[in-house]
Amino acid sequence: MAGNYPQYNLRSEPTWAQFIYEANIGVKLFEKQNIWLESGIMPSHIGFESAISANCWNLTRSLLAENSPYYEAGVKVRFTSQNQKLNLSALYLNGWQQITKSIDLHRPSFGTQITFIVTIKLIFNYSTFLGSDYPDRFNAFRQFHNFYIQFEPTEKFGIIAGYDIGRDKFNDDRYGIWYSPVIIIKQRINKKTKIAIRGEYYSDPKQIIISTGTTHGFQTFGFSSNLDFSINDKIKIRIEGKIFHSKDRIFVNKNDNYSLTTNMTIKL
Description:
Strand content: over 45%
Shape: globular
Radius of gyration: 19 Å
Number of helices: 2
Structural class: mainly beta
Helix content: under 10%
Number of strands: 13
CATH topology: Porin
Strand order of the largest sheet: 1-2-3-4-5-6-7-8-9-10-11-12-13
Number of domains: 1
Distance between the termini: 15 Å
Order of helices and strands: HEEHEEEEEEEEEEE
Largest sheet: 13 strands, antiparallel
């Protein structure tokens, strides 16, 4: 891969790693059981959004997704039930969105994921991260939980409700909490046109994940709406309007921020 995504999201990685979107290998451990051992650079087990815009309901990513891992590196053991409805994973990771080990972070991190597909219309997911994003000398321990429900009762309508909550140190000896709820509603107008709206909130008053340097930290509401038009199976045009409102004046000395984003996706 290349472009703005690796430039900003992988800037802490060595140059060779910034060009890798995904690179892993898997081995099926048992002939009669669907248990796999996988190792390498993998998509994150956290959340329902990915870095690939065309695969997401909204054009831009949510605050929740932008501030949790998009990718991870390590070893994963994955089990899938015979009826394909239950997926369980346990992970041994290099860290919080980290490919190479930091020279001052030697402690391992761990993750879990439970995905239950009730029907093709209803999915429950619960993922965790347990480890650290700080050097060992801080003796910090991050606990993070991600939960979401995806419900699509018809081919035209769908809804996703998600919630993240985490706990970590914000100074040498004190812990704080951040959290973020989000809800997305999708509606297909016709075969070529879809709309989606998103409401979200992100609260990080102790500035553990998002540093603002302000009194109340990052406490922000967001609302966005996008229109998707598919020219054909390969080409899609999207436009999205978005509003943020923050408790503090963090947007160029303002509480509010407005944006309009357009995009054309071409699948080869």
